[in-house]
Amino acid sequence: MHNPGVPEDGDFADVALHLQESFLQNPEVEAFLQGLATYAATRLGSADHPCCCEITVLRPKKPAATAGSKPGLGMARLESTYGDGPGLTAMRTAGTVLVPDLRREQRWTEYVRAARRQGFLSVLSIPAVLEEDARGVLTFYCPQPVDVGSGGINMAEGFVRQASKGLKLALRMLKLEETKEGMSAAMQTRTVIDLATGAIMAQNRCSQAAAFKLLRDASNSRNMKLREVAAAVVESVAGATDTFTYFDE
To answer: Which partner for 247 in 83, 148, 214, 233 could form a disulfide, CB atoms 3.0-4.6 Å apart?
Structure first.
C-alpha cells in the first residue's frame, strides 16, 4: 500500500464530499459501493503498490451488500463460506485487522489459501463507522506483504474514517427513500383493499366487516395474497376480468 508519509484525516477531507456526489449519481447500493471500492483502491494504491478493495455493508432486514474494485473478487463471500476472516472479524470487534503476510498467517486456513490463490499476500480490514443499525467494512488486498511500521495502516484508517461520513449519509438517505417507498406501497395496498371491500358491500349488500371477511376467505381458499384478491375484484368491477365477479356470503 502506497505510503508517502502518514497523513492526517484532513488529507482525505475531500472523500466525504466525493462520496456524497457519487451517491447522487449512483443511488443504487451496489453501484455506489462499487464506485467507493474503486475510488478507495485508487486513492490508497499506486502503480508500484497496487491494491484491490472490497466493501461489505450489513443492514437489518436487508441482504448483505458487497462490491469490489476488481470484478469477481468475491473474498467477502469466501469469508461467509468458511465462517470467518479478517472482514468479519473487523466488523465483530469494531477494530482494524491486519494480515501483513498471508504466508505466515495461522488463522482462517481455507480463506488464506483462497486469498493466496488470487495472488494476494496481505489483507487489511477496517470497519466503517455507520449508524447503530448498520455495519460495514472496507478490506484491502495487496499482492505484496505490508510493512507494519510503514504508516500505511494509519493512512488507510484515515481514509476510512472520512469515507464513513459519506457512506453514513448515503445509507441514511437510502433508508429514508426506502421508508417513503414502503409507506407508499402500504397506502396503495390499503386503497385497493378498501375499493374491493366497497365493491363487495355494494354487490352483496352486506356490512364492511362481512365484505372484508369474504375477501380474507377468498385469499385463504385460493392461496393468494389479500392484495392480489382485492386487485382482482377491482379489475372485475372495471370489466377487465370476470374471475371474481361474485362472492357468496
So the answer is: 214
In angstroms, rounded to a whole number, what is the distance separating the alpha carbons of residues 58 and 81? 16
Q: What is the pLDDT of residues 17-29, one digit of tens each?
A: 787 777 777 777 7
Long-range contacts (CB closer than 8 Å, 24 or more residues apart) made by 175-179:
175/59, 177/27
- What's the start-to-end Cα distance of the chain, in Å? 73
Q: Which residues contact 81 (CB under 8 A, 6 or more apart)?
A: none
Q: How far apart are CA 151 and CA 154, in angstroms?
A: 5
DSSP string, the chain: ---SS---GGGGTHHHHHHHHHHHH--SHHHHHHHHHHHHHHHH--SSS--EEEEEEE-TTS--EEEESSTT--HHHHHHHHT--HHHHHHHHTS-EEES-GGG--SSHHHHHHHHHTT--EEEEEEE---TT-EEEEEEEESS---GGGSHHHHHHHHHHHHHHHHHHHHHHHHHHHHHHHHHHHHHHHHHHHHHHHHHHHHHT--HHHHHHHHHHHHHHTT--HHHHHHHHHHHHTTS-STTS----
Do 96 and 102 touch, CB atoms closer than 8 A?
no
Phi and psi at residue 105, to the nearest 5°: -80, 130
Query: Which residue is associated with the grid cell 504508516?
Result: 151
Residue 116 reports pLDDT greater than 60: yes
What's the pLDDT tens digit per position in 46-93?
888 899 999 999 988 888 889 999 887 889 999 999 999 999 999 999
Q: Which residue type, as a one-letter code, is found at position 123?
A: V
